[in-house]
Amino acid sequence: MRVVFLGPPGAGKGTQAKVIAEAAGMAHISTGDILREAVARETDLGKKAKAFMESGGLVPDDLVVAMVAERLSRGDCAKGFILDGFPRTVPQAEALSGTLSGMKASLDAVVYFKVDDEQVVERLSGRRMCRKCNANYHVAFMPPKKAGVCDKCGGELYQRDDDKPETIRRRLKVYYDQTADLIRYYRERGLLREVDASASPEAVLGGVKRALGLAK
Ligand code: AP5
Predict the structure, then answer these.
(1) Which residue from 7, 15, 21, 32 could staple onto 28, CB 3.0 to 4.6 Å apart?
(2) In this structure, which topology does domain 2-115+178-211 adopt according to CATH?
(3) 129-182 per-position pLDDT tens digit
């Protein structure tokens, strides 16, 4: 199955993508994770992307499109994939369609995570990530057993630079200005499946599975 997870920052796309991809043996492709790794390693891509990410803006389409096309060509995508955080603009969606056509493939579904701005701010300001394994927590909603320490690998938990209040506001604005058009784009193509992402993580997981036909 080839799927896109779409929705505002902090809607829970990454949280659910990790669980579903692991259970279904699909590749989880998070453009945010790939870009953060490139920034940390100071690669050419990372150097170009850094300032856009720090300000809460989008990295230019050509850079992200090339990065995703390369990632989709790898063997682990043969059994299917979840694209988490891509596409973010209509030109990215059109480029994805072209890349998949070249692979004689197409998308099966686009899951739209619906959640309001207040919850976005609450979720992002409490998010903590593991420096070692990238696991994600929330200080109130999904707390680690020991504050500041990853349950899975013992790594140090940190707050993403773009999870500061002023950057969260900017990311939301960018979402409404540039990404929200994608909802109409995919609805018109009959691919959009809406999920109420405001519920608990377990309830959202059930909704996503039903939307993908993985549960009744
Ligand atoms: P990216 O990393 O993709 O950030 P994002 O889309 O803003 O998404 P987030 O990771 O913030 O949120 P999420 O929906 O995955 O939520 P999560 O599951 O973590 O992108 C970062 C930057 O990279 C962009 O700003 C841009 O600069 C660049 N970039 C990336 N892709 C790009 C592209 N295609 N084009 C151009 N630039 C690009 O959950 C959030 C928190 O809530 C966590 O703490 C979690 O524990 C908690 N939580 C999750 N679900 C629930 C729930 N149901 N109830 C309560 N808490 C919950």
Answers:
(1) 21
(2) Rossmann fold (3.40.50)
(3) 999 999 999 999 999 999 999 999 999 999 998 998 889 999 999 999 988 899
| C-alpha to C-alpha distance for 181 and 169, rounded to whole angstroms | 19
- The yes-or-no verdict on residue 43 having pLDDT over 90 is yes
- Total-model pTM: 0.95
Say how many C-beta atoms besides its own lie within 10 A of residue 178's C-beta. 16
Check if the beta carbon of residue 167 is closer than 8 Å to that of residue 55.
yes
Give the binding-site residues of ligand 1, using a 6 Å CB cut-off: 9-15, 31-32, 35, 52-53, 56-59, 64, 85-86, 88, 92, 123-124, 126-127, 136-138, 141-142, 162, 171, 200-201, 204
73-100 pLDDT, tens digit each: 999 999 899 999 999 999 999 999 999 9
Q: Whose CA is nearest to atom 44 of ligand 1?
A: 127
Which of 20, 55, 59 for a ligand 1 pocket mutation test, highest count of atoms within 8 Å of Cβ? 59
Instruction: Tell the residue nearest (CA) to atom 21 of ligand 1.
Output: 32
Annotated catalytic residues are 13, 88, 127, 160, 171
The strand pairing partners of 27, in sequence order, are: 81
* Domain layout of the chain by residue ranges: 2-115+178-211
| Tokens representing residue 50 in the block | 């850094």
CA 127 – CA 123 distance, rounded (Å): 6
